Amino acid sequence: MSLRPATAADLGGIMAIEHSSFPTDAWSEESMRAELDSPHNVYLVDDDSGALRGYGGVRALRGGADADIQTIAFDAQHRGRGLGRALLRALLAAASDRGAREVFLEVRDDNPSAAGLYLSEGFTEIGRRPRYYQPDDVDAIVMRLDLRAWHAQPVSAQTNREEPDA
Q1: Domain that holds residue 48
Q2: Which residues have CB under 8 Å from 17's CB, separation 6+?
Q3: What pLDDT shows up at residue 138?
Q4: Residue 117 in 3-state DSSP?
């Protein structure tokens, strides 16, 4: 795995993964470009010798107490290999570096692999948004992570988990 900051040159590769991962509700190229350009966001890509395998982003205003995981996606052939967990941890570290003390996210109710990953990293369900994902009418599970508690976990607890990986 080779994580690096996303650049405007990555937009085409990001959008290809975005459309294959979220065929019915992919973000527009304009929206993704705005995400990459925002000083409030940290976007990372998993770059395998020039080929993007995945990407993710966190919105974390410097000095803010909270942050939001905006998106994480990998192309189909690279899922389930621990890459999503490594990317999530890098995004959590970026949020912490910017001063966040808690992180929020929404995950599709029909994506148990992603939900399992988030639960295994210490996120807890705090609510649901009925029919949030359109046009599929899929509920969003709203989750929260206390970054201070996450950092306090022994390294062995963070690396020896057997739960699913996105």
Answers
A1: 3-159
A2: 52, 54, 55, 73, 74, 75
A3: 94
A4: helix
